[in-house]
């Protein structure tokens, strides 16, 4: 019964994002991405498969039920399912991600420039939150349990932390086929080439030695591409 309820919750989440996707509406039924430019037209940055050659497999992906290895410094891993995995998603304005957390695992502060996100907890307990824009910079947080749903507005910094004693799993629907992601620490202190010390010392009110230390760290990317 509990599994059935969770299935309904996840289905509701997917339907909600199909209704409110942020990408532009397509001008045709679908545009299955293909690499052969001679047999296609160009839409949304991808070549479209000839509709007469499209099959069910162009709209299908399997394996999201398989846990991913969380043995990294963050203790989390994000598996995004987008157009590379499901070519039929091209132009449809949605994508999906599975997030696995080890105990105390963190999906660090990050943002999606092109998508809002709706997260459903499948297993475990997560402390989640986001920060509103200037000038308030208000922190909005919630502890989520199995079956709970939480929304992260587009472009706002947000995070998820496993505060339970066991592994946790969440499923996120995103309102873009290519939501993009910026891990804040990685973007600021791990940029290539590095941001000038003069900029960062003034922006963060930190000593230059601290900035140099932070820039020397290896910032973990917990996404599977």
Summarize the structure.
The chain has 225 residues and is α+β, with helices and mostly antiparallel strands. The chain contains four helices and 14 strands.
Describe the overall structure.
There is one protein chain. The mean pLDDT is 88. The longest helix is centred in the first third of the chain and has 18 residues, at 2-19. The chain has four helices and 14 strands. The radius of gyration is 19 Å and the shape is globular. The chain has a six-stranded mixed beta sheet with strand order 10-7-12-5-4-14, covered by helices on one side. The chain has a single domain, classed as Jelly Rolls, CATH 2.60.120. The chain is 18% helix and 29% strand. The chain is an alpha+beta fold. It has helices spanning 2-19, 184-189, 197-204, 208-216; strands at 33-34, 41-43, 46-48, 76-81, 95-101, 106-111, 117-123, 126-131, 139-144, 149-152, 158-162, 168-174, 182-183, 223-224. It holds the Pfam family Cupin_1. GO terms for molecular function: manganese ion binding. Residues 1-21 form the signal peptide. Belongs to the germin family. Oxalate binds at residues 107, 112, 117.
